[in-house]
Amino acid sequence: MSESSLRISTATAGMPPSSRPRRRRRTGWVLAAVAAVGAVGGGAVWIANSGEKGGESLTTALVERGPMLVSVTETGEVTAEEREVITNTARWSVVIKELAEEGKIVKPGDLIIHMECKELDDAMLDQALDVDTADRAYQTAATRLIVARKTMANKVSKAEQAVTDAQDDLKKYVEGEWPVQLAETQSKILLADEELQLARHTLKTMLEINKDPELGQPYSDSEIRNEQLKVTRLELNLKKAQDEKAILEDYTHKRTVRDKETAVKDAQLDLETARLEAETEIRLAEGTDASAKMRLTKQQDRLKELREDAEKLIVRAKKAGLVVYETRRHRWQAPVTVAVGEEIRPNQQLMIIPNMETLQVETRVYEAIREQVEVGQRALIRLDARPGRVIEGHIGKVAPLPNTQNPWLSPDVKVYPTVVKFKDNADLEGLKPGMSAEVEVILAELTDVLSVPIASVFAIGEATYCFRADGQGGYERVRVTLGRTSETRAQILEGLEAGERVLLAPPPGVRVGKKAKTEAEAGPPGPPTTAPATAPAGNERGRERERPGPERERTTPPATGEPSSRPARITMSP
After folding, report:
1. Contact at 8 Å (CB) between 321 and 354?
2. Which of 40, 205, 413, 547 would be a feasible disulfide site paired with 405, CB 3.0-4.6 Å?
């Protein structure tokens, strides 16, 4: 996490904020320790041993139990949440007659700036218009408006009547003509069906009589064929009547309904067109009438505007604030001199008045720890203007979306703009916007936990280890389980006990690198090859991790040989 520092303090966690020594951001040795922690999987790291010559004395640290503070520290700047921007809101170029000094604290009602403009009086000469011409134009426009309203009302009324007639025609057909036509076709079908049934019965009777030998076939073949033709003709008549009904229902009726509905729509469209034309004509006539009327009242309106401009030449403070001459809305704009006698253009910004009661600190939170920062969370504020003093605050706002910290150099580094509020308004006294600040956001305040310096924790493969000193110049490798960590200390969940001492650097001759051998590959002779341990700052204790239990391997440092005196060297792989 570039440019942010995670801090864990056991010695000062129980002290009041005002009595803690101010923490500086990264020193050289802290940078080396953080780089070592972040180098797993990224190349080799060599850390110098600070022991005595010959390796008989090694630098160690105590395994401590007690409170532990987890925090993240970032730089920030004092800003005002509310501010008043003073500009020349008059539509004239003005000259500054009087103004408040820059840096002055003003109260509500205090004079901020007084401007003057002699051109305001001369501008009133253009207000004398031809009143008689304007009055005649207004009377003509009013008459035309009355005529347009009556003419358009008559046209709309005719169009409404046409819509009513078309709707009546549709209703007449659907409710009157169509049922009659349908009944007629149904009657034709019934009649044709009755005639067909009668002819079929007659033909059947004739055929049955001719089959009786006793009757001697009284009907001739010609008579039977005539009856058969009659049946065929009646079947065709029935089919024709049925087809006529189908055509009437499926085509003629639907088309007639569509035609009449189209007529209704056409009439409605004509009505809508008539209304739009009427609205347009009336609006034009009303516009002409309004324009003529505006010419009559133009002088009074213009005079009112000029009086409003004159009132804008005197600006007084609405709230208490600090006078700051700021004439540029954007950095690329050229500055303007704010002084008595200077000419100021319209809409030119002159100064800003930050509300000193709304001071806050704007900082940032990196994406890696965004989920651990919430509104209302405790924060400590340190100001360069107040060295040695710690001010209580809390998180007031965290932006919902991140920004790119540096779009050109670091496009992938995302930060969330964050606002820190002061807990007590009394701390605002003497502060000014733009002051540099350092914000320490408290992520966690742990109690009664075991911890060691982060520089004493290393990794072999997927496991983490510490080198525990035995008090006799030797050491043994101990497998540990980490809890929450920071750039200075790491919480130990398993593997060590309070009061033990661990080495702050690998023993002389021990190489720390990415490709460390496992215990089986390393073999019995020689010290193990290790890599620094990594654990993200603020990780939760309940996160799943391997817990194989403590594992120890005793190793004795070489009896001879010089300790490495070169500074920490970091090699990162791409």
Report:
1. yes
2. 413
Q: Which of 50-64, 182-196, 362-376 bottoms out in mean pLDDT, i.e. has the lowest? A: 50-64
pTM, rounded to two decimals: 0.50
- Residues near 388 by Cβ (< 8 Å), separated by ≥ 6? 22
Q: What angle do CA 524, 528, 530 make, to 5 degrees?
A: 160
CB 233 within 8 A of CB 198: no
Which among 73, 71, 5, 74 has a CA at the least distance from the CA of 445?
71
- Give the model confidence (pLDDT) of 226-279 as tens digits: 989 999 999 999 999 899 889 988 898 889 999 989 999 999 999 999 999 999
CATH of 131-310, one of 1.10.3860, 2.40.50, 1.10.287, 3.30.750: 1.10.287
- One-letter amino acid of 389: R
Centroid of chain to Cα 501: 50
Question: Which residues have CB under 8 Å from 93's CB, separation 6+?
Answer: 117, 119, 343, 344, 345, 346
Q: Which of 473, 479, 441 is nearest to 460 (CA)?
A: 479
Rounded Cα gap, residues 7 and 4, in angstroms: 10
Phi and psi torsions of 367, nearest 5°: -60, -30
Give dist(CA 521, CA 35) in Å, integer.
27
By three-state DSSP, how is residue 469 classified?
strand
- The alpha helices in 212-356, defined as continuous H runs, are 221-247, 253-311
Contact 63, 76 (CB under 8 A): no
The answer to whether 435 touches 56, Cβ cutoff 8 Å, is no
Q: Which two tokens stand for residue 45?
A: 């790291």
For the chain, how many residues are written? Answer: 574
Give Cβ neighbours of residue 486 (< 8 Å, ≥ 6 apart).
6, 7, 8, 70, 71, 454, 537
Q: Whole-angstrom distance between the N-terminal and C-terminal Cα of the chain?
A: 17
Contact at 8 Å (CB) between 250 and 215?
no
CA atoms within a 13 Å half-sphere pointing along the CA-CB vector of 111: 11
The domains of the chain are located at: 5-80+358-570, 83-117+313-354, 131-310
DSSP state of 355: B
Residue with tokens 């057909």: 173
Q: Alpha helix locations (H) across 89-220?
A: 119-123, 131-172, 178-211
Class of domain 83-117+313-354: mainly beta
Question: CA–CA separation, 489 vs 65, rounded Å?
Answer: 12
Give one word for 376, left, alpha or beta, with left for phi > 0 and alpha for psi -120 to 50.
left
What's the one-letter identity of residue 81? Answer: E
How would DSSP label each residue in 49-66? --S-TTS-S--EEE-EEE
